[in-house]
Amino acid sequence: MKKGGKLIVFSAPSGSGKTTIVQYLLQQEDLNLDFSVSATSRDPRGDEVHGEDYYFISLKDFKQHIKNGDFLEWEEVYRDNFYGTLKSEVERIWAQGKNVIFDIDVVGGLRIKKKYPEQTLAVFVKPPSIDELKIRLKKRKTESDERINMRIAKASVELATAPQFDYIIENNNLKKALQESHDLVADFLQKKTPSEASE
């Protein structure tokens, strides 16, 4: 993959509010961001739109893309339930002269950071508590209790990875979290990476 703009990764357990933060940052014109749409092998939920929320790809095609090396990162989140970032998606955004922002799970976020350490800002959004997370997930009314419990179990594991990120933003107060995220991203985008500095 050719070198382009910067990569901004927001990762968090489900229900932490990372999607709200990412949507807000996308509206800030000074940041010049575009959203990296992930690919998934799962079926659309509710009113999700192909190419907007996700690229919905069949399991067979997803596995073929893996074989072809088309993904920047991918993982099997639940059995036969794959998620990944297509390299072509990042290149599409860089070709427009924009920086890429990801709303992505913890494992994927850390993989991108590892592959592009200089170009990536990795931010972990931390919920106030696991109990608060449970309340938020229940409020969504999109998933069964069993599914919510799976997400909560996963969240405990994900919270343990927070120190591996560049920054941790605690989302107790959304207004404050939005401001903090904006400042972090703006600051990172102004900094030259070591390789840019030497050009």
What's this entry about, in short?
The chain has 199 residues and is of the alpha/beta class. 43% of the residues lie in helices and 21% in strands.
Radius of gyration: 17 Å
Q: Encode the helix/strand succession as letters.
A: EHEEEHEEHEHEHHEHH
CATH architecture: 3-Layer(aba) Sandwich
- Derived from helix and strand composition plus strand pairing, the structural class reads alpha/beta
The largest sheet is:
5 strands, parallel
Q: Mean of the pLDDT scores?
A: 91
Strand order of the largest sheet: 2-7-1-8-9
Tell the overall outline. globular
Question: How is the topology of this model organized?
Answer:
Layout: E1 7-11, H1 18-26, E2 33-35, E3 39-40, E4 55-56, H2 59-68, E5 71-78, E6 81-86, H3 87-95, E7 99-103, H4 106-115, E8 120-126, H5 130-140, H6 145-159, E9 167-170, H7 174-190, H8 194-197
Parallel strand pairs: 1-7, 1-8, 2-7, 3-4, 8-9
Antiparallel strand pairs: 3-6, 5-6
What can you tell me about this protein's structure?
- The protein is α/β, with parallel strands linked by helices and 199 residues long.
- It has a single domain (7-188), classed as Rossmann fold (3-Layer(aba) Sandwich), CATH 3.40.50.300.
- The protein is built from eight helices and nine strands.
- It has helices at residues 18-26, 59-68, 87-95, 106-115, 130-140, 145-159, 174-190, 194-197, and strands spanning 7-11, 33-35, 39-40, 55-56, 71-78, 81-86, 99-103, 120-126, 167-170.
- The strands form two sheets. Strands 2-7-1-8-9 form a five-stranded parallel beta sheet, sandwiched between helices.
- Strand 5 and strand 6 form a beta hairpin.
- Helix 5 runs antiparallel to helix 6.
- The radius of gyration is 17 Å and the shape is globular.
- It starts with 6 loop residues before the first strand and ends with a helix.
- The model has no long low-confidence stretch (mean pLDDT 91).
